[in-house]
């Protein structure tokens, strides 16, 4: 009996140990599954241009500086900074002991490589964001100086985004296609990407702030349909979704298994018109500002917000939302005026213009397009909606293969980030897809970059607004809120105005 008892006891203890090993293994393989509204474009901070890509980068690529939820600039890879030389120099002290995900050290030489890569790599979408930088000086291994041609107010804000993301110089120089195998200095390293299906990241064991990282893996799953995205969250197939549909907010609030987070964004949404980017611009909308004014006057922004977004978003007519310190109050949101719109079309000798409106295949955006279609139809417009997969729509816009495009911008902490790349003559063509160019506007945009005082910058933006809002390369329509839904078991989530999902501190109960 004693032997048998001991045997049973040994088997029981062994079973417990096996269970502990299995349980421990399961805990070690915890995965955070995030539903995205689109599939990102290139996973290279220098070349990328999508908001959804920035969400992925937030888990993969640390920046020189970051922002707080209150939009203050805070340390990340740089621990402190100082302006010198009458604001023509920025000295950055770098965090020590940081490694890239390939084991290479992060140091001043790496910063120099990255800034020069942003400035010189063909196709860079960061060049215009830091164009005032003329050189990078390595002072010592952990101190670097950015040399500027002139004072440049938006620089720190730019370094809190993709222009400040640091990639491994070794990987960037040796990889034939860096975007297919990105290597950064962030908490998660790239594992795999299956287009339109998933992006898989794995925790980087040598991350400098690893104590704040609780999940071993993150899977980003692009699911364009917001209803399907929410259904996957409700069924347990996802843990967190971004861009919850405004019409689903109430349902999430009533579901005890879920919780909601929201914050006012820095973003805008509007109609971008092809003005001079190829043959598709040769139509009344692209060639006559009166037709664009008529289109704007045919739209009731408040009604659009109520019908499509349950009144949760903010109607707007500028690159900054009303209430923002850089909103030009003298140019208020125009009301709907169908009679005036019809008169403008008559004056332009285009009483019934046909416009093809390209729209990403997002249910809310498509619904907004349908409301715009109906409103504009009352003024005489014949709007044909061209539903297009998101990444494909971006490529078509760059090529000029569009007439009008219902698209937005996720927003930046500095107003320069919301206007310069879309209206400046020398802006990258991947962003200024309208090919809008006005030397007077350029002069004021450049002056706003060099002015230090907010009041002086606002004065320059007021002059920009006078011309740009009259030319209407973009008809600004609304400013969204970032809406998130997540499992009630997920803790540590903080919403930021830039809309990015930061993995630091996220954990399951």
Briefly characterize the structure.
This protein has 509 residues and is of the alpha+beta class. The protein contains 16 helices and 21 strands. It has helices spanning 2-28, 51-60, 108-120, 155-159, 169-174, 226-234, 249-254, 284-287, 289-297, 301-309, 338-347, 363-377, 390-399, 416-423, 439-450, 454-471; strands at residues 31-36, 65-67, 73-75, 78-84, 89-94, 133-140, 143-148, 188-194, 198-203, 217-222, 240-242, 258-264, 268-273, 314-315, 354-360, 382-388, 404-409, 474-479, 481-487, 490-491, 507-508.
Structure commentary:
The chain is an alpha+beta fold and 509 residues long. The protein has three domains: 113 residues, D-Maltodextrin-Binding Protein, domain 2, CATH 3.40.190.10; 107 residues, Dipeptide-binding Protein, Domain 1 (Dipeptide-binding Protein, domain 1, Alpha-Beta Complex); 212 residues, Dipeptide-binding Protein, domain 3. The chain has 16 helices and 21 strands. A seven-stranded mixed sheet has the order 8-9-10-1-11-19-12, sandwiched between helices. Strands 14-18-13-17-15-16 form a six-stranded mixed sheet. Strands 4-5-7-6 form a four-stranded antiparallel sheet, with helices on one face. The longest helix has 27 residues.
């Amino acid at each position: 009996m004693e032997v048998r008892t001991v045997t049973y006891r040994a088997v029981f203890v062994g079973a417990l140990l096996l269970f502990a090993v299995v349980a421990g293994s399961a805990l070690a393989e915890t995965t955070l599954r995030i539903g995205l509204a689109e599939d990102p474009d290139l996973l290279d901070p220098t070349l990328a241009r999508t908001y959804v890509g920035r969400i992925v980068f937030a888990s993969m690529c640390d920046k020189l500086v970051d922002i707080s939820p209150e939009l203050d600039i805070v340390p990340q890879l740089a621990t402190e900074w100082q302006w010198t030389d009458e604001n023509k120099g920025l000295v950055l002290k770098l965090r020590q002991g940081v490694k890239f995900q390939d084991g290479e050290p992060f140091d001043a030489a790496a910063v120099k490589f990255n800034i020069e890569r942003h400035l010189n790599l063909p196709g860079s979408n960061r060049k215009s964001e830091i164009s005032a930088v003329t050189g990078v000086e390595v002072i010592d291994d952990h101190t670097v100086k950015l040399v500027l041609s002139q004072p440049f107010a938006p620089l720190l804000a730019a370094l809190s985004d993709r222009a400040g993301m640091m990639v491994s110089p070794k990987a960037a120089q040796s990889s034939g296609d860096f975007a297919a195998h990105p290597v950064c200095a962030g908490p998660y390293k790239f594992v795999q990407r299956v287009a339109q299906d998933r992006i898989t990241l794995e925790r980087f064991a040598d991350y400098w702030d690893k104590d704040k990282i609780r999940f071993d893996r993150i899977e980003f799953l692009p699911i364009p349909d917001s209803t399907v995205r929410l259904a996957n969250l409700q069924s347990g197939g996802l843990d967190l979704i971004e861009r919850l549909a405004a019409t689903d907010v109430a349902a999430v609030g009533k579901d005890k298994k879920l919780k909601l987070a929201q914050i006012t964004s820095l973003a805008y949404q509007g109609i971008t018109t092809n003005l001079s980017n190829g043959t598709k611009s040769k139509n009344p909308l692209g060639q006559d500002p009166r037709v664009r004014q008529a289109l704007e006057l045919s739209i009731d922004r408040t009604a659009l917000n109520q019908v499509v977004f349950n009144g949760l978003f903010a109607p707007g007519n500028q690159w900054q939302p009303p209430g923002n310190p850089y909103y030009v109050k003298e140019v208020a949101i125009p009301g709907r005026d169908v009679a005036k719109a019809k008169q403008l079309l008559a004056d332009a000798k285009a009483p019934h213009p046909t416009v093809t409106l390209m729209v990403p295949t997002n249910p809310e955006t498509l619904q907004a397009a349908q409301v715009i279609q109906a409103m504009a139809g009352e003024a005489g417009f014949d709007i044909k909606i061209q539903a297009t997969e998101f990444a494909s729509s971006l490529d078509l816009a760059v090529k000029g293969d569009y007439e009008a495009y219902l698209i937005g911008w996720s927003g930046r902490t500095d107003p320069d980030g919301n206007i310069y790349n879309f209206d400046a003559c020398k802006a990258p063509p991947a962003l200024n897809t309208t090919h809008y160019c006005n030397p007077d506007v350029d002069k004021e945009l450049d002056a706003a970059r060099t002015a230090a005082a907010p009041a002086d910058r606002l004065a320059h933006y007021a002059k920009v607004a006078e011309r740009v809002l009259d030319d209407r390369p973009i008809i600004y329509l609304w400013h969204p809120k970032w809406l998130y839904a997540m499992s009630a078991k997920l803790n540590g989530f903080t919403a930021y105005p830039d809309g990015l999902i930061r993995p630091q501190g996220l954990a399951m109960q």
